[in-house]
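>> Question from a student workshop board

For tomorrow's exercise we were told to take the sequence and the ligand below, predict the bound structure, and bring the output to class. My setup keeps failing. Could a helper post the expected result so I can at least see what it should look like? The ligand is nicotinamide-adenine-dinucleotide.
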Amino acid sequence: MSYILLDGKDLAGRMKAEMREKVENMAAKGVVPGLAVVIVGNDPASRVYVNSKKKDCAEVGIRSFEYALPEETTEEQLLGLIDTLNEDDSVDGILVQLPIPKHLDEAKVIRRISPKKDVDAFHPYNVGELMIGTPIFAPCTPAGIMELIKDAGLEVAGKNCVVIGRSNIVGKPMAMLMLHNNATVTICHSKTKDLKSVCKQADILVAAIGKTELITSEYVKEGAIVIDVGMNRTPEGRLTGDVNFEDVKEKVSAITPVPGGVGPMTRAMLLVNTIKACNMHKANMLS
Ligand code: NAD
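>> Workshop helper replied:
Here is what the output should look like for this input. Compare the format with yours to find the bug.
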């Protein structure tokens, strides 16, 4: 069976070209979207993510402001910075790179970000809006996946969608977006019994597990669309997905590669959300 390769790198590139034009038009009216990126501590993976987010911003003309705080930053200091950024008109989006050091309360930090600047869509206000189907910002990874599916002209309505993973940043919002797009949704997790047989019912299978190539052809129905969210590192340092691509590719109708599938879409959606935030905040200057 031949399959469609859902090329996130290509779509993200096209989206960025469009966004660049949009941002140029905004800049011509004196409005430049701004994203504040806060990083606490010295986690090397977080540093890589922050650098790529800053590079993405530069590519489309969004201004990025980095706040790199030391590991020993107190909660009061971090919350104080968020308060300042909430009030700063040059900042349209605020992102605190997770994870933050253990002595800081992640939930409290997320709640402190103004929902209007919460471009990651992790604040409970935005989670609630997503739940009732009126999101201001949709979380970047699931929103990027929906864009990728739509861009390929694939149908979601009426399909059986199985999401593996129930995290707040991927699994749960993914299930919600699929539901809002009229899929029939099942959420699986580490305690699900007989994962294989549940997955085999899926017309659309989304793997957001964090386990290298757990999903083999035995989990996949003939003709399914398979979305691999996983970004794992083997002990040798190789980047792997949650899906064994080579094993399932002959069975699927469409599949995302790792790398080059969901990852670039997640990054593109952060830019989409930042531009959206700016349009909201500065509507009077842009009309
Ligand atoms: P998480 O650890 O918060 O959640 C993993 C989920 O998988 C849990 O809900 C758990 O119940 C489930 N799970 C674990 N083992 C399982 C098993 N054997 N069978 C069934 N379910 C099982 O992870 P997360 O933050 O949701 O991320 C998941 C993966 O996606 C990771 O590899 C992460 O790096 C990746 N990720 C990628 C992007 C991207 O842009 N590509 C973005 C976010 C996360």
